[in-house]
Amino acid sequence: MPDSDQVALGLDLLASLEHEELSVAEALDRIETITTDPNVQREILDTAEVRGIIDREAGFVRPTSHNYVSFESDVVSREGEFTCQRCGTGISTGYFISFDAGEHGPFGSSCIRKVTGRE
């Protein structure tokens, strides 16, 4: 995936987090599901801050939007053989988040809740 696509997907992910506040490390845990490249991760965080998607202060990130992922309309499940994008576990049901920038996943049932901030 080109870096610009990863940045767009990362911005969509940060804009939809259901956290009032999370540490930069916790935000990076979510961003690592998109890319492990530290330069792209930094670009996602910096761009999100410049665009007002997050406020970043003293090691914490605060999403500014309340446009949360709807499990009814934004998450698609598929049966098959997948590897969870977050934890690397083999899964038979993959959950994918539909963002404007593209689809993100697959995730297992607990990781999809963790990534979106439901857990």
From TrEMBL:
This is DUF5830 family protein. It holds the Pfam family DUF5830. It comes from Halorientalis brevis. It comes from the Archaea.
